[in-house]
Amino acid sequence: MTYVSWAALYEGASDQAYFDLLIPRAMESIIALRGTRNSTISPSPAVRFQRGPAGAIAKRICSASDAFHLIFIHSDTGGRALQTEMDHRSTRYCESIHTLCDWPVVRCISISPRHETEAWVIADPGAVTAALGYRGSPESIGLPITALQAERLVDPKHALEAAVMQVRGRRRPYDAKQIFPAIAQRQSIAILRETKSFSAFETTLSAALTDLGCI
After folding, report:
1. Are 101 and 150 part of one and the same domain?
2. Among 187, 207, 178, which Cα is nearest to 105's?
């Protein structure tokens, strides 16, 4: 039996609310399909780190590294130029950890949804409508009907906020920290896999799980 513990560094509180649920589900999905041994995934991160200079963060991660097997680094990508910068930033974190305490680079996994986290949040429109308790079609509240359409949106956050407002009205304030977990619990990993950015994330995650001997 292998127990997999993990840590995370997110952009913000709403991202934490979403990824804290999605990350273990993604790992469990991969292991269910390709697992070579019985593995138990920690349902929540052993440690959460706050953003800062790569060197300072690397010291904190290395100091706590006995508590986890994998570290997840989240960065929204925005447009093409920003995507390149975010990729470089995530790489800097991973390289700094490796340089400081010889942490295996393969066990440092970047999470980089196209544009914003919401590109993944709305990738499975059925999960969104179910979380909102809405029985109409996703397109009737302005949501994309496929994962690829969600990933192509320049402002997926606005699309989600507008959909929530249509269902709940203006009197109930939009709170991503409440909505994101409800969606993450319902999402189909197979549908998420249709987006290029999630597929890339899953490839990197699979390499880390292979390194741990889980798959």
Report:
1. no
2. 207
